[in-house]
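Project standup — Tuesday

K.O.: blocked on the structure for the chain from last sprint. Re-posting the sequence here as requested.
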Amino acid sequence: MPSAVTSSQGALVVLRFGRVAAMGTVAVLILIAGVWASWGSAQHVMLTKGRESGTIEVTRCGADTCSGPYSPISAGSQPRRSVVIEKNVAVRQGQTYAVVVKPGSDDVVRSGPAGVLYSWVPFGGALLLASVVVAGGMRRTRPAWVLAGAGIALLTAAFVTI
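H.V.: unblocked you, prediction finished:
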């Protein structure tokens, strides 16, 4: 009889470990996907050495993009008649924004603190989603609160600076 109790406790330990390992893997994959989604624009904003930087005066806006003339600030950068920036809540027609040109294109992304924080917004969302997985799937509430707090702080900071 004692062997049956021991084996059922062992099975519970294995199942608990399996649940924690599976949910931990899911949480890590969510965080990796958030970094991957953010890095597409964050690399241009954060690693500015050798990149063209300047300003754009938004003159036209379409459904998904806005455009306008580019005035260079950095040495070696050339003025352009029209560059394209993604249309979002932070870009308005008639405003001027500091930008960095994506290499080999006429696409630009916002630079400075607002650009850095805005580029990491997908990672902030991933932090919030991963906190739910950590709290519910792994039953680890303190790390979940840390993840959620970091996500909320990042999203709030991006909202305030934009």
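K.O.: great, moving the ticket to review. The two ends are 67 Å apart (CA to CA). The first helix runs from residue 2 to 46.
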